[in-house]
Description:
Blueprint: E1 6-11, H1 16-28, E2 33-37, H2 45-51, H3 55-60, E3 62-64, H4 67-70, E4 74-80, E5 91-93, H5 94-104, E6 109-114, H6 123-126, E7 131-134, H7 146-161, H8 177-194, H9 205-217, H10 221-242
Parallel strand pairs: 1-2, 1-6, 2-3, 4-6, 4-7, 5-7
Helix pairs in contact: 1-2, 1-7, 5-7, 8-10
Amino acid sequence: MKSGDIRFVLVEPSHPGNIGAVARAMKNMGLHELILVRPREFPHGEAIARASGADDVLTQAKVVKTVAEAIAGCGFIAATTSRSRDGNYRVQDVREAASRIVSETARSAVAVLFGAERSGLTNEELDVAHVLIRIPGNAEYLSLNLAMAAQIVAYEIFQAQGLPTPKPEPAMPLATPEQMARLYEHLAQVMEEVGFRDRTQSGTNLMERIHRLMQRAELDQNEANIVRGFLTCVQSRRRKAGS
């Protein structure tokens, strides 16, 4: 496995020192691909100072505007969270998640998302993840610094790399974020055409639930194409009936 198969994505990090500390944690554990989504300050001298020699990780770090750009080309996506979530998300202990992350690199690149220091990841950002990572701790004070969380996840990944991991089945890569985005757009279009609309008061819950359902299903690329083929067939039948 190449270390570049696993990328750490920091979403809207506000403290440049934390960026440097994450780079240091990554290099300690043999990881090198760092992506920053809308960092408040970068590059910055404090980031270099806190990196403590992991300058190469900082130099190679990519700065992008959206999470979609950060995870482009990835198959499996994990996201860290300290907040309690409802049952619509698959949640794994960090050790279990690390083993899955390592095994998934046999199929495609993997991204691990970390949220902003104060607010973490939004529900919309969590919706792209196949699994949420929970780091066990004191229930009365579940508050880890961004760099600390990254160090723990990186360490567990390092440990998992030394353990025999089962090859994921099937061998077909998971659908990429770009493919899933096209699938969601296609599904929304067909839902509108057949009059299947959200009946909730806010009018937004249905698609959120569908996103979470699909991410839990972990569609591979063939399966995503099958679903889109079915949607195309539905559209074709409706056009024939209409004509």
